[in-house]
Every structure is written in structure tokens, then in C-alpha cells.
TrEMBL record:
Residues 1-17 form the signal peptide. The keyword Cell membrane does not apply. Keywords: Oxidoreductase, Signal. InterPro entries: BBE, FAD-bd_PCMH, FAD-bd_PCMH-like_sf, FAD-bd_PCMH_sub2, FAD-linked_Oxidoreductases_BP, Oxid_FAD_bind_N. The keyword Signal applies. This is FAD-binding PCMH-type domain-containing protein. Residues 107-314 form the FAD-binding PCMH-type domain. One of its GO terms (molecular function) is oxidoreductase activity.
Length: 618
């Protein structure tokens, strides 16, 4: 806190009048005002303390409690259970002393919210909004805290914490619009999902009703030191929030190829507006808001308290697992072969395959390419027809990919290919990992890009050049101890078809592959080291991706927040329209997050700490 006060005094005193109040300012609400808010929300107001406070000298120091915290600090389950737990704490201001990316030995809340409303009903949300507005306090919306762009954090903020907003899930055999005079085109089933649910819960509920929900793809969290996950796989099915930032920003996963993006599935939202009003947004009411909340990004237009989403009868699945392993640590053969594999992605996608691949580079272990792809098969067909469908799918995969690479087997590379059939989507999903396995640390350095058909086929030279820039012969250049390239073949198919009343980045409508690279800085790198790793990733890796796939953009939910071309890259040509919706529903800019729609009106006055008060931009 000291640093901040100093910064303010020496920094920009003239803007102070136009800033949100922070705890060091005299305009910060008094204890009795906070008590008043607590009464309004029936005791659900939480005053936050840094999670690892017990590891630091001063009030609250406690070695044994510190040891306990150190053990669970990286667990997703622990982070999620806290109103200030974030999966990607870009700025770590109170790590357990021996925790990762410790940086300087200070302990304060940093970008964590000062108070949180533990909301369980829409009126709690409205009370938090009203309080923030009346007292000029920065407001953030926090669900799981998985955001990689720190959009659910904010220095000196009050947060609306959605985790416990969990009215019972409702299955509708046939969708019933809240507004009964609203005719819907959708004649299938739907589930009403409260703001606090995570995908694993929605998947399980949909499966109980014999249906598939379109959600996220990670089975095991990126943080593999999550020993709960490792010993009890079922506990860590997809932990991303269902109807928070994920769905509002687009949402890709194992079912998107077949049914469209997650945002495409929304039939209606219940939303608390900046005015405190609670409204329904669907094809009939508040249509512009409905569209903005389907791709325009979380934390921007209002607080979603529930969403009604389409679900689909379950299907049998054919899974294909594939590994390409080079004989040595020389990456050149693997990169060349990977470029060939990528050139086959559009054909495999057009034949119905989708899923995730990854290349992980870690000191002391071999760098390999591996994927788990799946093809959804027809429901309710005779076993003869199903068998022939499976044979045809195998034939396509073998002809396109496996036979093509088989000549390399045993020479420069080892090629492993395996098919497996599952009776339902849920048994397939529970069968193994669909995303990165192998990174042991949260990574604040990530760059990403969309790839369309044209950028993948007949682009071997450019793709190889890009892969070599991502995995240079010596990783010491990158200054990272590990790198992961995540290749999500989640586009194509239904994703390519634009849906009415959505605001999804148009780049998605030509995307087959979404590519992300994560670099892990050494544990002791501190802020400066992390910054160097990010800078290298943006200047070398992201630029190489952009050169291989120019002009398509990237996925706002999984991108570097400091991408210099953020407006176009995150929103495509929808930005201006989204700004008009923001103006209409939140004219005062109450909902603010970095590089969210309408964020230009405000800026964080930061100094060496990288965080500070939110002020009106001059
Ligand atoms: C382990 C992991 C796996 C992932 N896997 C996938 C994946 O498979 N597919 C994919 O598409 N993405 C994936 N993501 C990215 C994910 O889409 C983003 O992290 C997303 O922002 C998470 O949303 P959240 O609500 O859970 O997180 P939060 O950090 O809590 O919120 C993210 C943003 O949404 C806002 N927000 C949250 N709740 C609400 C609400 N109720 N109303 C309005 N705004 C709200 C917040 O203010 C913030 O701006 C993954 C991320 C992680 C960490
Ligand atoms: C809010 O009230 C509850 C119940 O009285 C109490 O337990 C909690 O500590 C209060 N929160 C704050 C921030 O004072
Ligand atoms: C932190 O590291 C020091 C030195 O390596 C060690 O002595 C201490 O026990 C560790 N503390 C915790 C909480 O792990
Ligand atoms: C938040 O509220 C829920 C529901 O009332 C409660 O179970 C939970 O313990 C609360 N969490 C915190 C951290 O206060
Ligand atoms: C409903 O279906 C009609 C006819 O197919 C189509 O023109 C219209 O765009 C659809 N409306 C919505 C909101 O999907
Ligand atoms: C319900 O839908 C009708 C017809 O589309 C619309 O005119 C009306 O405003 C809607 N009512 C509400 C409460 O949203
Ligand atoms: C890796 O292998 C390629 C092709 O065989 C060769 O040209 C290159 O020099 C090798 N690189 C290293 C660092 O050994
Ligand atoms: C790279 O891959 C192409 C196509 O698979 C192949 O023809 C070529 O020989 C490979 N080059 C090297 C250096 O391995
Ligand atoms: C398949 O059959 C089951 C049981 O007869 C039925 O409930 C289900 O709706 C059917 N699925 C499809 C997609 O037709
Ligand atoms: C590659 O060779 C190994 C060892 O001979 C064999 O087990 C494997 O099946 C081969 N892979 C393919 C795709 O033929
Ligand atoms: C490969 O990259 C070069 C340089 O950026 C570009 O001119 C060329 O069009 C690209 N090739 C393809 C097939 O996209």
C-alpha cells in the first residue's frame, strides 16, 4: 500500500478527482457504510485477506498455517473456493514464500478485490452494483477466477462473486421461453444454468438426462501438481465457469465442431444491469444485449445470473489417439512432421474429427506431438450402420494422416495410432485428458491465434517457420523453463455457420484450429523475468503466428492481454457495434475490465507495482 500512496503523490495528482476511490483515499467508504451493505446482502459481505498472509511477518504470521497454504496454494479447487483465488495471478503480491513466481517479498492484496459480495440471488448482485455506484468504488465480477487477462481482478475493488449463485439446475424437455409470447425456433431440450455452476457439473447433469452440453474441454487442469486431479480424475473435470466469461466470450470445446460455439447455444440470459434492473435478454427482449452477451466478452454489459442453453441427445464417439515422437532432442524433424500433420487438420475436421493436440517442451523430457481427437457418430442407428460409419471414419483418418506418416515410423520418428469407441459423450469425456498435460505451473505468458483452412493447407513452409520460432533449438532464448503449444481443433463444422443475434468474432467463422502457446518463466524470475518471457512471446512467437495466419484474429478468452492489435484481434469488426450496446446499457462504464469493450474511457494508473487506481482517461 505504501508504494501506491507514494506513486499517487509523485504520479498524477491532477487525475485523482477522476479516479475510483481506493482504500488509501479519504473518499473510501467508512466501516459503517460497508456494514450497511453487509446488512443489505444478509451478511454475505466478505472482507478479503491475502491468501498467504500467514507466511509473512506481522499480524497474522503463522508458520504452520503457512505450510498448509503452501501445500494447497496451486490447487484449482483451493483457488476457486476463495473470492480472491485466480488461476492466472499475473501479478503475485502475496505468494507463499516458497511458492512459484514469488517476486518481491511483500504481502498485500494487489489486484485482488478488497471486499466481495458472496452473491446467492439477483438482489445481492443489484445491491453490490448500487453500492459501487453510489460510493465511486471500482466494481468487478468474479466467477471462477480462471481468466487469463485478469478481467476478474481489480485493485481496490468490490467484487460480485458468482460462485454460490446456484439455483437448482432445470432440465426442459422442450425449451420454454420466459417470455411466453416469444416464439423460439428451437424445439429441442434446454438447461437453465445459474451463474455459479462449472462445466463439470453441467456435463454430469446433462448426461443424467441423456444429453450433451456444449462446454469447455480440459479434463485435467493445466496445473498437474493438482494432486487431487492426479489421484482422482473425476474430481477435476472441466473447472471453467459455465455461463460467466467462458460463454460470453464464445466458448470452445469437445462438442463445438458438431453443435457450434457455446455462445451459439444460449437461448436466453437473465441479467442484472448497471441500473440494478433485472431483465431477460433473448430473441424477443433486449435483443442487442442478448447478442452482445454472446461473444462480446464477460465483465462488460451486465451480470449474468443465469442462462438457458440448448442441449443435444447424446451420441456414440470414435476416439483417435495419436503420438509422434522423435528419437532425440533435436526438434527439427518433429517440427517438419508437425507442419504436415497440421496441413491435414481441415480434412480431418471436415470428416467430423475434433479435439486437442499438444507439444510440450520441458527440460529433461522428450518433446513429442500427441492428440486425442473424436468423431461423433449417429445416434440410434443399427449396429451394422454404426460399424460401417466407424470403418469409414477410420479409413479417412488412416488415409489422411496415419498412412501418410507411416513411412517415417522407425526412421526419424515413432508413430503411434489408436482408435477406441465409446457409447456416450460422457464416457468418452471421462476417458482421458483433452488438454495440456505436462505443465506444472500456472503460466502468465500466453499468445494465441486462429487458423483457417487456407493458412493450414499448402502453407508448409510458413507453418514450419512458425513452429521453429515457437520452439527455437535452444529454449534459453525464450528464457522459459517449459513451453506448451496447445492445438485445439475445435472449429470447422457448425462453428463456421454464423448464428443470428450473436457478436462472436467473425474470425471464428472461418477457424478450424485455435493455437495457444504458454511459456513458463523460472520460479525465481520475479516481475522483470516474467515480463521478459512475455515480451519474447509477443515479439517472436505471436508475430510468427500472425505471419502464418494473417488477419484472422484470436480468441479473446485465451490471448495475451498486451497484444498490441487487441481491438481487431479480440473483437474483429464487431467492436464499434459492441461499443454502442455498452453505451446503452452501461453509460457510466461501471463494469470495467482491461481491454474489454468500452474500456478506453478509463485507465489504471500503474507504476512499478503494475497496479493502481482506475481513473478517467485524459
Ligand atoms: C484451466 C482452464 C481451462 C480452460 N479451458 C477452456 C476451454 O476449454 N475452452 C474455452 O473456450 N476457454 C477455456 N478457458 C478460458 C476461459 O474461457 C476463460 O478463462 C474465461 O474467462 C473463464 O470464465 P470464468 O467465468 O470461469 O472466469 P472469471 O475469471 O471468473 O471471469 C472471466 C470474465 O468474465 C466475467 N464474468 C464472470 N462471470 C460473469 C457473469 N456471471 N456475468 C458477467 N460477467 C461475468 C468476469 O468479470 C471476467 O471479465 C480455460 C481457462 C482455464 C484457466
Ligand atoms: C457480514 O456479516 C456477517 C454476519 O453477521 C459476518 O459474519 C461478516 O464478518 C460480515 N462481513 C464484514 C465484511 O464485516
Ligand atoms: C522454504 O524454503 C526454505 C529453504 O529452502 C526451507 O527451509 C523452508 O522449510 C521452506 N518453507 C516452506 C513453508 O516450505
Ligand atoms: C458463500 O456463501 C455460501 C452460500 O451461502 C456459503 O456456503 C459459503 O461458505 C460462503 N463462502 C464464504 C467464503 O463466505
Ligand atoms: C428462425 O428461423 C427463421 C426461418 O428459418 C430464420 O429466418 C430466423 O433467422 C430464425 N430466427 C432466429 C432468431 O434464429
Ligand atoms: C415479450 O415478447 C414480446 C414479443 O416479442 C415483446 O413485445 C415484449 O416486450 C416481451 N416482454 C418482455 C417482458 O420482455
Ligand atoms: C537437427 O537436425 C537437422 C536435420 O537432421 C540438422 O540440420 C540440424 O543441424 C540439427 N540441429 C542440431 C542442433 O543438432
Ligand atoms: C519435411 O516434410 C516433408 C513432407 O512431409 C518431407 O517431404 C520432407 O522430406 C521433410 N523434410 C525434412 C528435412 O525432414
Ligand atoms: C434415440 O432413442 C432414444 C430412446 O428411444 C430417444 O430417447 C432419443 O431421443 C433418440 N435420439 C435421437 C437423437 O433421436
Ligand atoms: C510404428 O512402429 C512401431 C514399432 O514397430 C509399431 O508398434 C507401431 O504400430 C508403428 N506405427 C504405425 C502407425 O504403424
Ligand atoms: C507465407 O508467408 C509469406 C511472408 O509472410 C507470404 O508472403 C506468403 O503469402 C505466405 N504463404 C502462404 C501460402 O500463405
Amino acid at each position: 500500500m505504501k508504494l501506491i500512496s507514494l506513486l499517487l503523490l509523485t504520479g498524477a495528482p491532477s487525475v485523482l478527482a477522476n479516479c475510483k476511490c481506493t482504500p488509501t483515499d479519504s473518499c473510501w467508504p467508512s466501516a459503517s457504510k460497508w456494514k450497511g451493505l453487509n446488512t443489505t446482502v444478509n451478511g454475505a459481505l466478505i472482507a478479503n485477506e491475502p491468501l498467504a498472509k500467514s507466511c509473512y511477518a506481522g499480524i497474522g504470521t503463522d508458520p504452520s498455517q503457512c505450510q498448509e497454504i503452501s501445500k494447497i496454494y496451486d490447487l484449482t479447487s483451493f483457488r476457486e473456493s476463495s473470492p480472491i483465488g485466480y488461476a492466472y495471478p499475473v501479478i503475485e503480491t502475496c505468494a507463499p514464500v516458497n511458492g512459484s513466481i514469488a517476486g518481491v517479498p511483500v504481502c498485500d492484496l494487489g489486484t485482488s478485490s478488497v471486499y466481495s459480495v458472496n452473491a446467492t440471488k439477483p438482489t445481492d448482485v443489484a445491491a453490490g452494483i448500487k453500492f459501487a455506484k453510489e460510493n465511486n468504488v471500482r466494481l468487478v465480477i468474479k466467477n471462477t477466477g480462471h481468466d487469463v487477462r485478469a478481467r476478474s481482478q481489480g485493485y481496490g475493488s468490490l467484487s460480485i462473486w458468482m460462485k454460490h449463485m446456484k439455483p437448482e439446475l432445470q432440465f426442459q424437455d422442450r425449451y420454454q421461453p420466459s417470455n411466453s409470447s416469444c416464439q423460439s425456433n428451437w424445439t429441442g431440450s434446454a438447461i437453465v444454468v445459474g451463474g455459479g455452476y462449472i462445466w463439470k457439473e453441467v456435463y454430469a447433469y446433462a448426461a443424467k438426462h441423456g444429453h450433451i452440453a456444449v462446454g469447455g474441454s480440459s479434463e485435467v487442469n493445466i496445473q498437474l501438481n493438482d494432486h487431487v486431479c492426479m489421484t482422482l480424475l473425476t474430481v477435476c473435470l472441466q473447472t471453467v465457469g459455465a455461463v460467466g466469461g467462458y460463454i460470453q466470450g464464445a466458448g470452445h470445446g469437445p462438442a463445438t465442431h458438431d453443435f457450434g460455439l457455446a455462445a451459439d447455444q444460449v437461448l436466453e440470459y437473465k441479467v442484472v444491469l448497471a441500473s440494478g434492473e433485472i431483465v431477460i435478454a433473448n430473441d424477443c427482449s433486449n435483443v442487442d444485449l442478448f447478442a452482445a452477451l454472446r461473444g462480446g466478452g464477460g465483465g462488460t454489459f451486465g451480470v449474468v445470473v443465469s442462462a438457458t442453453i440448448r442441449v443435444y441427445p447424446t451420441r456414440p464417439i470414435l476416439k483417435h489417439s495419436f503420438v509422434l515422437a522423435p528419437p532425440s532432442t533435436n526438434l527439427s524433424t518433429l517440427m517438419n512432421a508437425t507442419a504436415s500433420v497440421l496441413s491435414k487438420y481441415p480434412a480431418l475436421s471436415d470428416a467430423g474429427f475434433s479435439g486437442n493436440a499438444q507439444i510440450t517442451r520441458k527440460l529433461g523430457s522428450k518433446t513429442i506431438y500427441s492428440h486425442n481427437f473424436a468423431k461423433m457418430l449417429s445416434p440410434n442407428v443399427s449396429s451394422v450402420k454404426l460399424s460401417s460409419e466407424i470403418e469409414e471414419a477410420k479409413r479417412v483418418m488412416n488415409r489422411q494422416l496415419v498412412d501418410f506418416l507411416r513411412p517415417l515410423n522407425g526412421t526419424g520418428l515413432t508413430v503411434i495410432s489408436k482408435f477406441e469407441k465409446f457409447d456416450t459423450f460422457q464416457t468418452y469425456f471421462a476417458s482421458g485428458t483433452h488438454e495440456s498435460a505436462g505443465l506444472n505451473y500456472p503460466s502468465p505468458a500466453m499468445v494465441s491465434r486462429f487458423f483457417d483452412k487456407q493458412s493450414l493447407i499448402n502453407n508448409h513452409k510458413n507453418i514450419t517457420t512458425m513452429l521453429k520460432a515457437i520452439f527455437p533449438e535452444s529454449n534459453s532464448k525464450v528464457q522459459a523453463i517449459a513451453s506448451l503449444l496447445e492445438l485445439s481443433l475445435v472449429g470447422g463444422g457448425e462453428v463456421l455457420k454464423p448464428k443470428p443475434n450473436t457478436a462472436i468474432h467473425p474470425g471464428w467463422r472461418s477457424t478450424y484450429l485455435f493455437m495457444e502457446n504458454f511459456d513458463v518463466p523460472p520460479a525465481d524470475s520475479g516481475l522483470q523475468g516474467v515480463r521478459q518471457v512475455r515480451q519474447y512471446a509477443i515479439s517472436k512467437k505471436l508475430n510468427a503466428m500472425k505471419a502464418a495466419a494473417p488477419g484472422i484474429g484470436t480468441y479473446m478468452n485465451e490471448a495475451d492481454p498486451d497484444d498490441p492489435d487487441w481491438k481487431e484481434d479480440f473483437y474483429g469488426d464487431r467492436y464499434e457495434w459492441l461499443t454502442s450496446v455498452k453505451q446503452k446499457y452501461d453509460p457510466e462504464g461501471l463494469f470495467w475490465c482491461y481491454r474489454c469493450v468500452g474500456s478506453e474511457g478509463w485507465e489504471e494508473i500503474t507504476g512499478p507495482t503494475l497496479y493502481g487506481p482506475l481513473c478517467k482517461a485524459k
